[in-house]
Amino acid sequence: MEDGAELIERVRLICGARNVLTDTAELLTYRSDGLWRTGPLPLAVALPGDGAEVASVVRACAELAVPWTVRGAGTSTDGSALSRSGALLIALARMRRILSLNLEDDEVTVEPGVPAALLARRVAPSHHFPTETVSTVGGIVAQGAGVTELMGLSLVGSGGARAEIRAGGPGYDIAAAFPGSCGEYGIAVALTLRLVSAG
């Protein structure tokens, strides 16, 4: 079995068959970004439902030496949402949960696929989250838009290992370096943000 076919079968077992897209007509949706630039068709599109599935998908890619690209809403303008030829595209659109919300401490933890507009509605009127973009929260942070302070993240690395990172911890401050990295350091499957008070 070719590596691509074997990976697709493994990803179907991880995410469920209906959450792995292989039909050319479906893949065409994922060829462009916010500037309507086009890239090659991905090998397939995986739509994991949570951080554990993301980690398992990335681990399968590493074991079978298949490259991957991560994508949020696909609204970026720097080409980072475009697939590479022969790569699996990992789309985070199903990961839309607000995991915790503590307005008293000005903190929220979300999955990366939460739309910015949805988060803005949930924290209003006491707090503010910018909605000048149609992007997801994960995309905003990955693009380094600087809309809020990243306090921590759950990160899946290139080999599929998962790490919990807090800002200001010992050693290299990955939480500070992650905004603007466009997936270079891995995939954030949960992000803790400092909210801006509207008062």
Account of the protein in words:
With 199 residues, the chain is α+β, with helices and mostly antiparallel strands. The protein folds into 2 domains: 3-91, Uridine Diphospho-n-acetylenolpyruvylglucosamine Reductase, domain 2, CATH 3.30.43.10; 98-197, Uridine Diphospho-n-acetylenolpyruvylglucosamine Reductase, domain 3, CATH 3.30.465. It is built from 6 helices and 11 strands. A 5-stranded antiparallel beta sheet has the order 5-6-10-8-9. It has a 4-stranded mixed beta sheet with strand order 1-2-4-3. The chain has a two-stranded antiparallel sheet with strand order 7-11. Strand 5 (98-102) and strand 6 form a beta hairpin.
Index terms:
four-stranded mixed β-sheet; about 200 residues; Uridine Diphospho-n-acetylenolpyruvylglucosamine Reductase, domain 2; five-stranded antiparallel β-sheet; 6 helices; 11 strands; Uridine Diphospho-n-acetylenolpyruvylglucosamine Reductase, domain 3; single chain; alpha+beta
